[in-house]
Design goal:
The structure holds two protein chains of two kinds. Chain A is mostly helical. In chain A, about 75% of the residues lie in helices and about 0% in strands. Chain B contains eight helices and no strands.
Chain lengths: ~475, ~230
């Protein structure tokens, strides 16, 4: 299994470097698709092993059930987006396509590397690398084409705000080291597991400070209120495959970092303080997103605020603390990756077909897009937690866990705000799909490559909603035990 | 003061270096010219290396000498070099771009007063926590906390991309100061990785600043208002 872990780290890095040096674009899509599918296969191959034991390798790499969940989300989305990008890039020039493929693979590499890191320091470095690479991908329109004023603006805001947030996360890492070194000695290397195991003996003040700084710092990349401001800009201006990865995977990877600090904080302070802090950030984020999905004019900004909503749901779910709610949170990470990836990929088909991101210009989707229209509708329904999607199951578990753990008010607020967001999201989607198109467009898909991964996403959403595989359920409950054991 | 309670030579030196770094941060906040801000950043970064050498000598941590050398090579030489070349390039067609004078959203006096409030808040908050490492006293950590907030203030009150980037790099210096105070034993490989990461971030910041300048024909962020809501 160690070879599998190593391959997950090497393959996308190698693919990125190969795409960067290829003389023409001809092979770049193939390299990316092979790397994406292979990585997803490798992550799947890890699941049976990780469901029973943790994997440690070279003292810097570690895979446990929690990290495997996030690897799975990124692995799936990387494969889906790699296939989608073949169709998406047909209209772009050679240099753009090669740079894009190189960046996409390197971005996926950094996101796959983060959950594999055994220490908080290496985790921070991996998350920082995701910022650097994704900022360039957000800016790619501005860097390589004459268009892209919006991309330049979004990339600058993103890199500045996210880097400042990661500065706070670095400070959190420094205080975590300080706390750990008081018990584990000065040459302690910030490994996560020893820190959790020593939790009961760690000094409280630095751990409390580290958790709050990590919540605010990594929360910047998760898109939690009030440090979410880069997110709608970057998601709306990035090329669509990158938007899908940013929303479905990058936010989750940053949330994973918060969960690691949560484990340490809960082991040291008990779960009360970290859960209260998470609840405050989660409710504020959900409230903001539920209100902002109304009146959005840009389809990708609409989906970006939906991402803030779902990150709020995850944060509130963890704050409930009940095992069933934690299981719901981890299932939600997977289901959101599939649903949001589908929604962004569907939105990308709309923008290619209609030549605009403005919702008012996107009309008659069901008439002119025989596959992508219905698939986009399914994605929006999935994001709105309609059964039988995986998000319905996960949100049901979270609310059930909230009620079961006595968090009645928070659970009620959660249900109300999810319902408000549902109306905002579906109102825009139905206008796009059911209002007749003002001009005649051919009833066709821009590319079959842009449909196939969305169909795969729908299959995944149904599987997660109707009958998650036993191995996956086992993995989730093992991860819940890891999270719960820290309390 | 009871001599037993007085700070030792190394503790005193660490406190003095931290205080001078904070003063330099205020200098950046006050300074109108981006070129001068880069000079101040160089001085602040040099002090970080000096502090690393002081702690290395005090606590017999030879790896901190290596860290001091790497940090100096990167922050005193490489980063300022990149920033200066960038400013020179963006200043070719307009004298004002090098200076970015007038990019303050607040008057210099108001900005410094706001900085003092932030610094006092950070100093007392971090000081009250009573966290201190074996290498340097709690005062130095409190000053690092003050520096973090003033660096955030610098990024907020400036309306040009160069000063915002320098604000971010000085934020990184503040965090380095905090790390030296409470985490001087952090393995060298991790410290080196942090520095390498900073180098890559500088390159990306430079690319984006150049792209912004090419499109907006200035370093000002006043026109970055396209994306709202």
């Amino acid at each position: 299994m160690n070879a599998v872990v190593l391959a997950i780290l090497i393959l996308p890095l190698g693919a990125g470097l190969v795409c960067a040096v290829l003389p023409t674009r001809a092979l770049a899509p193939a390299v990316t698709v092979v790397s994406g599918l292979a990585c997803f296969g490798l992550v799947l191959a890890l699941i049976p092993a990780v469901a029973h034991r943790n994997l440690n390798y070279l003292s810097y790499l570690r895979v446990d059930a929690l990290s495997a969940i996030f690897l799975l989300a990124t692995g799936f989305l990387y494969a889906a987006v790699a296939v989608y990008a073949v169709g998406y890039l047909k209209r772009h020039k050679d240099l753009y396509a090669r740079r894009f493929h190189a960046g996409l693979n390197l971005f996926a590499w950094a996101m796959l590397a983060a959950p594999l890191m055994s220490s908080l320091a290496l985790l921070w470095i991996a998350v920082e690398v995701t910022t650097i690479i994704s900022a360039l991908l957000v800016a790619i329109e501005a860097l390589l084409t004459d268009d892209g004023d919006g991309a330049a603006e979004a990339a600058w805001k993103y890199v500045l705000i996210a880097s400042a947030g990661l500065g706070l996360a670095l400070l959190a890492t420094v205080f975590a080291y300080y706390a750990g070194s008081q018990v584990l000695g000065e040459h302690y290397n910030l490994a996560i597991q020893p820190l959790i195991q020593a939790g009961a003996h760690l000094p409280h003040t630095p751990v409390r400070l580290a958790f709050l700084l990590a919540l605010l710092g990594y929360g910047t990349k998760v898109g939690l209120f009030p440090v979410h401001t880069w997110l709608p800009d970057a998601h709306s201006e990035a090329p669509t495959p990158v938007s899908a990865l940013l929303s479905g995977s990058l936010l989750a990877v940053s949330f994973y970092a918060i969960l690691r600090f949560y484990q340490v904080a809960a082991a040291t302070l008990g779960s009360g303080f970290p859960r209260d802090a998470l609840l405050a950030f989660g409710v504020a984020s959900l409230l903001l997103a539920a209100l902002y999905v109304f009146g959005q004019r840009d389809i990708k900004r609409l989906l970006a605020y939906s991402s803030v909503e779902h990150m709020g749901i995850l944060t509130i779910g963890v704050s409930f603390g009940a095992p069933v709610a934690l299981a719901g949170v981890l299932l939600h990470v997977l289901a959101h990756a599939a649903a949001k990836g589908n929604a962004f990929m569907g939105a990308g088909v709309f923008t290619v077909k209609f030549g605009s991101k403005e919702i008012s210009a996107l009309r008659g989707g069901l008439d002119v897009l025989p596959w992508s229209g219905p698939l986009f509708l399914l994605a929006v329904f999935a994001l709105s937690a309609m059964p039988p999607s995986g998000i319905f199951r996960s949100e049901f578990q979270i609310v059930y866990g909230g009620l079961g753990s006595g968090n009645y008010a928070a659970a009620a607020v959660l249900v109300v705000l999810i319902t408000v967001a549902f109306f905002g999201l579906t109102a825009s989607a139905t206008r796009m799909l059911f209002t007749p198109a003002p001009r005649v467009l051919n009833r066709s898909e821009p590319s079959i490559w842009m449909v196939v991964p969305v169909v795969a996403g729908v299959v995944v959403l149904f599987i997660l909603g109707l009958h998650p595989p036993a191995e996956l359920t086992g993995l989730i409950y093992r991860a819940v035990a890891e999270l719960g054991a820290a309390r | 003061m009871d001599p037993a309670q007085a700070p030792g030579v190394y503790e005193g030196a660490a406190n003095v270096i931290a205080a001078v770094m904070l003063l330099i941060e205020f200098g950046m906040l006050r300074q109108a010219l981006a070129r001068d801000q880069v000079r101040l950043y160089m001085a602040q970064s040099a002090l970080i290396s000096v502090l690393a050498i002081v702690i290395a000598a005090d606590r017999n941590l030879p790896e901190l000498y290596v860290l001091a050398a790497l940090s100096a090579a990167l922050k005193v030489v490489a980063v300022p070099l990149v920033l200066r070349r960038l400013l020179a390039r963006t200043g070719d067609d307009e004298e004002e771009a090098v200076g970015v004078a007038g990019s303050n959203t607040l008057s210099p006096a108001t900005a410094v007063l706001a900085g003092i409030v932030l610094a006092a808040f950070g100093f007392f908050c971090f000081g009250a926590m009573g966290i201190h490492g074996p290498a340097a006293p709690a005062t130095a950590l409190a000053i690092a906390g003050a520096m973090v907030l003033v660096a955030f203030g610098l990024m907020i009150v400036r309306r040009d991309v160069a000063s915002q980037a320098i604000g971010f790099f000085s934020l990184e210096n503040a965090i380095s100061l905090a790390a030296l105070v409470v985490a001087s034993g952090l393995p060298l490989i991790l410290e080196t990785a942090f520095l390498f990461d900073l180098l890559v971030a500088v390159v990306v910041f430079s690319m984006l600043i150049r792209t912004h300048h090419t499109r907006a024909e200035s370093l000002s962020t006043a026109d970055l208002t396209r994306l709202r809501g």
